[in-house]
Amino acid sequence: MKRNKVDTKQLIEVSRGGLLERRSFLKSGAMFVATIAAPSMSQAASAKDFSALPEHMKTPGTPSEAYGQPSKYEKDVHRKGQAFFQSGIFTGALTPLEKLRGIITPSGLHFTIHHNGIPDIASDNHQLMIHGMVDKPLKWDVSTLLNYPMVSRIQFLECSGNSAANAVSDDPVQASTTSLHGQVSCSEWTGVPLKLLLDEAGIKPKAQWVMCEGADGGSHVRNVPLQKLYDDAILAFYQNGERIRPDQGYPVRLFLPGFEGNMNVKWIHRMEVVDSPSQSKDEQSLYAEFTKEGALHQFTFFMDVKSVITSPSGEQQLPANGIYEIAGLAWSGRGRVKRVEVSADAGKTWADATLEGPVMNKSFVRFTIPWRWRGNNAILLSRATDEFGNIQPTRAEWKAKNADYTFNHYNAINAWHVSSAGKVSNFYV
């Protein structure tokens, strides 16, 4: 069958810098340059290319494993370990965002941060207690809780310190998307709505907060507004269809959609209903922000609207001039992402990216837009807006409100510089 000649004249640029209208791109029949991770270009095939069978077609394969594992040829797709303190006690592992597609983060690649290591907790030995300003203090073992009604939602989780390097470093840190922004992931979380247990215990009229404590060696504690627990909080037992893993809080964690990651207390074992927050050690030190005027902000809760271009992105290399797909992720802790705009000329002009559906509440959404790179220097930006009209700020706007040493809740627009040689690096605009 004869293929029609590609008509690149049909390509319509929707902004300066080479961003293309998606419909005109598809209509033109033009092709993307080979992916950045695999720079080899397509090659013509002849009949003899199909006559010689590869070795793996000549012998039987191996049987399936009891628990399936990724291909051994995908060894470069892994989390990046990171120690935040020299002691190594406060450690974590970062999600390789630029190596994934879709919106679901595999359980084994979901980022994790723990303050005192991962406790070894057998499900049979774990209990949850609710006490304090309640009609009747109660405790449940895990087997009992697993019989309660459950709900499932696909939602993101982000550390309050994600992207911190761009908040505090005077010069752009040259690193990958994983290293800069890898403290955010998105999974399907399944668990018991907290309101069921709170109603069973009976909440006193003056109660306003709940002190939530984990069963780890550091007794991590965060105070959560009672209203949030009644809204959409769950006790999460499952992640992506299987029981949550130890570094995600096995056998059970608190999950607070849209709230900063450390409030989603792992290995949760005690919830004390109170009339005012207890001011835990973490709330007085790590998880508070200072404004430019020196005012202290505590209990800021929400992770605000944000987006990151994952391809092309930091430390990647464009193999040749041509048409690429700019792709990335956007999310908002307050609701759904309504719009993502992309710029290829440092923000002088913008174009709307396509949002790949479904667009869900407090979840990742993937955005894409075709881009023609002509081998020139380019600055790529993405800017997200959520359903309530909250817009991702510039770095200058974010820095104008916060003290120079503040880094929590950094959601400013990220920029990638593409050199004329095709090298992609972190950049400030």
Your description of this structure?
The chain is mostly beta strands and 429 residues long. Among the domains are: 108-160 and 185-278, Oxidoreductase, molybdopterin-binding domain (Sulfite Oxidase, Chain A, domain 2, Alpha-Beta Complex); 306-427, Immunoglobulin-like, CATH 2.60.40. Helix content is 11%, strand content 30%. It is built from 8 helices and 24 strands. It has helices spanning 22-28, 142-145, 164-168, 177-181, 194-201, 226-231, 281-284, 395-401; strands at residues 80-83, 91-94, 112-114, 127-132, 138-141, 151-158, 184-193, 209-214, 221-225, 234-239, 242-243, 253-255, 268-274, 288-290, 296-298, 306-311, 322-331, 337-343, 351-352, 354-356, 365-373, 378-386, 415-418, 424-427. The strands form 6 sheets. It has a 5-stranded mixed sheet with strand order 5-4-13-8-9. One of its GO terms (biological process) is sulfur compound metabolic process. Keywords: Metal-binding, Molybdenum, Oxidoreductase. GO terms for molecular function: heme binding; molybdenum ion binding; molybdopterin cofactor binding; sulfite oxidase activity. Residues 115-280 form the Oxidoreductase molybdopterin-binding domain.
